[in-house]
């Protein structure tokens, strides 16, 4: 994960590492290299500029120039700024209500259905009863996929094969949950290959009708800048509460992880790192910054 970015950042610090005395010019060129590494990793240009400007100010303010080991101090400054960029503190999802409802949104192929299974399994392990809901009325295969996952993790799946109205399906599912003592309802909605009006209207209507305590936007981290643009489009329409970054086990360049929070102003809450049900982690900005710095 982020090998390329880590290598480039490490190279940027090399100029400062092992040097007793350094100049403002050293700092400026290191900061420039850091900015280039971030942009190469698909970090939004404006975000890369803002964060490296801050790093530069910090470096000058915290006397990197006279530090005993300027390289180490610089790594610490970058670590702090990357942590802040990704939101600072870990943010949990809100599971509240009788039943609590979690709504999932995102494009087709983003890993939404896989994540629905993972989240259900995660919540079940906390000894809460869960109902998975297949509200994708366009792809019967999506219902089957969720049923297979449900069986695998021992969670019931609600679906209505003949019903083409996702709002009704979601409402009926919540009634079903109430009658069957399910405490948490996770609704998997239909995605499209790209942002389109019909999908947006549909998810908007579902959200308004069921008032979830948590709406999550699921996005494939390998799609770089597109991930950020898609997040913006969804957020403008449904004002989601948090982001799930998927496929971080692939050769993601890091851009999505680093810019989504700054651009959309919503926290990343989970990361998905594989196809298996166990491959789910809570998102800790500081740990991610640590991983990026290698
Ligand atoms: P949906 O269309 O958004 O519901 O996406 P799916 O859940 O069907 O996932 C699309 C593909 O990505 C499937 O082949 C999944 O197995 C795969 N996938 C989902 N999450 C991850 C992940 O974190 N890592 C990897 N490597 N593959 C994933």
From TrEMBL:
The UniProt entry lists the main location of this chain as: cytoplasm
Record's family?
A: Belongs to the GTP-binding SRP family. SRP54 subfamily.
A molecular function (GO) held by this record is:
GTP binding
The protein's name: Signal recognition particle protein
Residue positions binding GTP: 106-113, 188-192, 246-249
Localized where?
Answer: Cytoplasm
Q: What is the lineage of its organism?
A: Bacteria, Pseudomonadati, Bacteroidota, Cytophagia, Cytophagales
Q: How does it associate, per the subunit comment?
A: Part of the signal recognition particle protein translocation system, which is composed of SRP and FtsY.
Q: What is the species listed in this Swiss-Prot or TrEMBL entry?
A: Solirubrum puertoriconensis
CC per GO annotation: signal recognition particle
> Which intervals hold domain SRP54-type proteins GTP-binding?
267-280
| Domain remarks | Composed of three domains: the N-terminal N domain, which is responsible for interactions with the ribosome, the central G domain, which binds GTP, and the C-terminal M domain, which binds the RNA and the signal sequence of the RNC.
Source organism's superkingdom?
Answer: Bacteria
- What's its EC? 3.6.5.4
At the top of the EC hierarchy, this enzyme's class is hydrolase
The task this protein performs is described as: Involved in targeting and insertion of nascent membrane proteins into the cytoplasmic membrane. Binds to the hydrophobic signal sequence of the ribosome-nascent chain (RNC) as it emerges from the ribosomes. The SRP-RNC complex is then targeted to the cytoplasmic membrane where it interacts with the SRP receptor FtsY.
**Entry keywords, A to Z:** Cytoplasm, GTP-binding, Hydrolase, Nucleotide-binding, Ribonucleoprotein, RNA-binding, Signal recognition particle
For biological process, the GO terms are: SRP-dependent cotranslational protein targeting to membrane
- Catalyzed reactions per annotation: GTP + H2O = GDP + phosphate + H(+)
């Amino acid at each position: 994960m982020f090998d390329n970015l880590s290598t480039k950042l490490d190279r940027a610090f090399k100029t400062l590492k092992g040097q007793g005395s350094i100049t403002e010019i050293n700092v400026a060129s290191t900061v420039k290299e850091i900015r280039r590494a971030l942009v190469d990793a698909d970090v939004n240009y404006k975000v890369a500029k803002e964060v490296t400007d801050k790093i530069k100010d910090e470096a000058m303010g915290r006397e990197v120039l006279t530090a005993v080991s300027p390289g180490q101090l610089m790594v610490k400054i970058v670590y702090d700024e990357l942590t802040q960029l990704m939101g600072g503190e870990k943010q949990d999802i809100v599971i509240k209500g009788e039943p609590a409802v979690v709504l999932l949104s995102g494009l087709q192929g983003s890993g939404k259905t896989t994540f629905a299974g993972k989240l259900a399994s995660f919540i079940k392990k906390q000894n809460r009863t869960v109902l998975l809901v297949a509200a994708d009325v366009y792809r019967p295969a999506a219902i089957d996929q969720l049923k297979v996952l449900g069986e695998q993790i021992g969670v019931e799946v609600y679906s209505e094969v003949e019903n083409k109205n996702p709002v009704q399906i979601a409402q009926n599912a919540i009634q079903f949950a109430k009658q069957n003592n399910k405490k948490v309802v996770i609704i998997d909605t239909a995605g499209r290959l790209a942002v389109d009006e019909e999908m947006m209207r549909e998810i908007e209507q579902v959200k308004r009708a069921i008032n979830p305590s948590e709406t999550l936007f699921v996005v494939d981290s390998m799609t770089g800048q597109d991930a950020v643009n898609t997040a913006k489009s969804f957020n403008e329409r449904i004002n989601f509460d948090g982001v799930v970054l998927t496929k971080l086990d692939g050769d993601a360049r890091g851009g999505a992880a680093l810019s989504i929070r700054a651009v959309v102003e919503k926290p990343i809450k989970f990361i998905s790192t594989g196809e298996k049900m166990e491959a789910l982690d809570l998102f800790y900005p500081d740990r991610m910054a640590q991983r990026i710095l290698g």
